[in-house]
User: What shape does this take?
Amino acid sequence: MTDQSTRPKQLILNLFEMNCVGHITHGLWRLPGNQRREYTDIAYWTELARLAERGGFDAVFLADVLGTYDVYGDSPAPALLEGIQAPANDPMLVVPVMAAVTEHLGFGITASTSYEPPFAFARRMSTLDHLTNGRVGWNVVTSYLPAAARNFGLDAEIPKEERYARAAEYLEVVYKLWEGSWEDDAVVADPTADGLAPGSGVYTDPAKVHAIDHVGRFYRVAGPHLSEPSPQRTPVLFLATASPTGVEQAARNAEVVFTGGSAVRRVAEATRAAAVEAGRAADDVSFIVQAGVITAETDAEVAEKLALYRSFASEQGALVHRSVPFDAPSHPRDRTVREALAAEGRLDHPGAAALPLDITVGQLVDSVDEAWGGAFFVAGTPMVVADEIERWLDEEGIDGINLRQYHSFDTLRDFVELVVPELRRRGRVREAYVPGETLRERLTGGGPRLPVSHPAATHRRG
Assistant: This one.
């Protein structure tokens, strides 16, 4: 038997996707042969899912937004012109399509705690957990776009502190629904048992189904939950964060934290320490980053592919996506961001507070698009890519990646056909899935349900 302590750390391998034409590699939907324009076609999602499963991917991680990016240019027009996450369709509705053509691939679904009632959301996630045999996760977000707030009847974005307070209560409500409303043996499913009349059959024992009667600051939910217990009950919990408030919430709730850039080690150390303080184990939380990989069989092919992809990249698209509140390309590159904002009379713009004011405009423009560099980008042959991924795992301390797509489906196909075999030779990607394994079992090495140390477990009955 292989000694677990000497086995190389295996890579959590997710494909980063979104139900839209332009996700995070702005402008590249125009690449020859790119199928991103077919995102409205079921065949796009079935082909993607089959290919990801062939490569041993853990999950397709689906991003989402609830409004347009309308800070740059004070209008949604730039985002619409270039397809910057608009148009965008619902991420949940493509999951059954992909699940139907796969047996093992998981699905991480981004959904916000700020605008939708928790009761309806909890039922939809339970439904997906049933239909996928326990292969779903939830990327918990609070939504940050001002346009999203206006789409749900608010005049402005909910303040950050309130968004996180709402999220904390939202999680409490769904934990009560998923974990506490139905006891494990509530479903009897005995067609011959005595029910309302002798021998009329009993599907559910009513004594083992409970209202939650939640009354809080933001939500009043009576219950009971409408779905019977699903394989995981609570979906795998992803949280995307790098902020101190987010770290605190992730430490209490997350099983996988999606973070990135130079903050990775800081976020990981802070989250693990806070998890221990909250009564969990430090290794109860894993950390994944967005990663860019461009590969081919030779250095010349890599250089050619990289040059082609970069030639289609949109500088303005990155500024739109980052909600930069001024016309950066119109300013000299050596002007500071503070000076540029002042020149446009926008120093007091709400979006200015999120910008590094003392760097130059050129530095800002070069940094907003993470697709072409940074700590988790590599362009090279499969050996070079595998070396770098191993370095990320062993030296940067990450546990996995969300693979950014430059070209659908060439990016995924290149990774599956060229990089995965090399990672498998090195013991970093599994040779095969475990039949019947839930997403939680695969990612955590534990059982299909949250461990007793998780706060959701306090709501269990029976």
